[in-house]
Structure formats: structure tokens, C-alpha cells
Amino acid sequence: MVKKLRYILDKSTYINENTPLEQVRDPFLAERNIFLFVKREDLNHPTMSGNKWHKLNYNLQDAKMQGKDTLLTFGGAFSNHIYAVAAAGKIFNFKTIGIIRGEEHRPLNPTLSFAIDNGMRIYYLDRTSYRKKSSSEIINQLQEKFGDFYLLPEGGTNDLAVKGCSEIISMIDIDFDYICCPCGTGGTLAGLISGLNGNKFALGFAVLKGASFLNENVNSFLKNSRNDSFHNWDINLDYHFGGYARMNSTLMDFVSRFTSLTKIPIEPIYTGKMLFGIYDLVLKDYFKEGTRIIALHTGGLQGLKGLSEKLKKI
Predict the structure, then answer these.
(1) Together in a domain, 289 and 233
(2) CATH no. for residue 131?
(3) 104 CB-contact burial (10 Å; exposed 0-12 / middle 13-18 / buried 19+)
(4) pTM of this prediction?
(5) How many domains does the chain have?
(6) Run of H or E including 134
(7) DSSP classification of residue 209
């Protein structure tokens, strides 16, 4: 396959817009006449991969237009978003500041080590204060401490991120019935819904426990982009496995089997949970025979390095 490369912000960096769409050849699916394809957005960029690039694209352009030289954002110690923002800062010559939830732990995990190696300043915020991270009180404190910055929300999700994610649909060149994605904040799903323009069906899989707020988030993003008339979507809340970054042997066995069968590497935080959910819904006859499903691989494979100790306990 010939790569379709789009240069981004400058002529030295490009994104692969023609990532593979790989069919999953599994007897389980074949017996039920279900066609599953994985959109390999994990391959769109070496360090800003998956949905993270799509979320950052227009935000980076906006920061440049505003003349900002510093990006500040929030995330957990294993955050794919923190990793991607640090990489973007180095590539596009932004200073970067990562506000990390909780206390510092040494030695640093691979995610934070990468962030610091790419020039990011790390600042820890206790969990009580972190819950108020979007408040004017916390933002004012951060401005007093760090000066002027371009604010990227946790997970990178805002209206510009939704706009970027909406373009994923135009990169799919086969017919399908469903497009699925994992959901942390709902921005990627809102983008997919916008890109579908009322056609097909978008199905999100929550990776957080108690994530009923996602419906409100998605509705809000759709309203802001004037796409709130679309109702061809839903969010499944049943496959979080206990919460964000929580997992058990059932999920890990599935991830291992899927990777072995397809040679497509996945992680258990986002894409693994979504694919487990798709398989379980197939088993429960949620999809009618002949359904064609696209599963969006949202990247995040860098997080596997930091999960090794946790996986040993499962």
C-alpha cells in the first residue's frame, strides 16, 4: 500500500493518512457471518499515533496562530495524551508542561521518562486539586506559576479535537455498517459521529466505570459543532473491567489471543476493551448477520511498557 502522507504545520513532519484497514480473519466471526476490520491509526505517526494526532492537529495550528510557545495539559502518570503532547512539543518547537494527577513516584515510568526526555516540565497536582483542574482557581494558579500558555484539556478533547477526529471517516474507503471506538472523554466518538453526517452507526465503548457522563459530553460536543441532530450513535458502558486501566485475566487472555491471531498489537486500556466488547456483542447476536464493522485502533501501545509490573500481578 502506498502511503498517503500529509505534511503537518511545517515541511519536516508528516502524518500517514492511508493507514491500513485490516480484516480480522477469525473462525468465530466467520461462523456468524460478521465482517470486522481494524483501522490501524496506531500507524499514523511514530510518537503522536492514533486518535491523539487527530485531536492535536487543529489545536497545534490554533496555538501557532495565537503566537503561543507553550502547551500545558493534564493527565495521569501513564497518559497517552501526555506522551503525545510531549512529542508534539519537541517536533513543533513548543515548550510543554504536563500537570500529572497524584504524587511523584520514582523511578519514573516509561511514559513520564519519555515526556521529560522530550522537554516536558512535569508538575504534580494532588488528587483533590486535580479534580478541580478545569476551575478558574486552578487555571489562575497555573498561569501565575508558569506564565502564558495554550491550554489543552485532559485527553486533548475539545471542539478542535472533535473536528480533527471527524476527518477519520474520510480516510475509510470501504462500505460498513458500524464504526466503533473506545471512549475516555467522548471526543473521538463525537468526531466520528460528525464525520458520518447521519449515515451508518457509531458505537463507543466506555473504558471508565460509571461513565454515564459520556453521553452528556458527546451531546455537548455535537451541539457545539451543530451536529446535535444526529442520533445514529450509542455508548456501551459494560466493558470497562472495573475502571480506567483496570483489567483481569479474561481481558488479558483476549488481548493475547487477538494479537496472536491477527498480528495486530493492541493494549488492554482502550482498544483491547473495545474489541472484547465487540466480540461479546457478536456472541450475544447484537449484530445481525452480514454486518460490517470497523474498529478504530486508537494507538496507545507505548503504555504497554509501563504495564509490565501490573500485568505480573494478574
Answers:
(1) yes
(2) 3.40.50.1100
(3) exposed
(4) 0.92
(5) 2
(6) none
(7) T
CA dist 256 and 152 (Å) reads: 34
Residue 196 and residue 241 share a domain: yes
Q: What is the mean pLDDT of each successive set of 10 residues along the chain, which is 314 residues long?
A: 47 74 98 98 93 94 96 94 96 96 92 97 96 95 97 95 96 97 96 97 96 95 92 97 92 97 96 98 98 97 74 59
Rounded Cα distance, 304 and 310, in Å = 10
Read off the DSSP letter of residue 175.
Answer: -
Quick one: how far is CA 185 from the chain centroid?
A: 9
| pLDDT tens per residue across span 58-115 | 999 999 999 999 999 999 998 999 999 999 999 999 999 999 999 998 899 999 999 9
Are 89 and 121 a contacting pair, CB within 8 Å? no
For residue 118, what are the domain limits? Answer: 51-156
Q: What number of CA atoms fall less than 13 Å from residue 289's CA on the CB side?
A: 4
Cell numbers linked to 123: 508538575
Residue type, 223: K
Could you tell me if 168 and 195 are in contact, meaning their C-beta atoms sit under 8 angstroms apart? yes
For residues 173 and 105, membership in a common domain is answered with no
Sign of the C-alpha dihedral, residues 133, 138, 143, 146?
A: negative
Exposed / middle / buried, residue 97 (Cβ in 10 Å: 0-12, 13-18, 19+):
buried
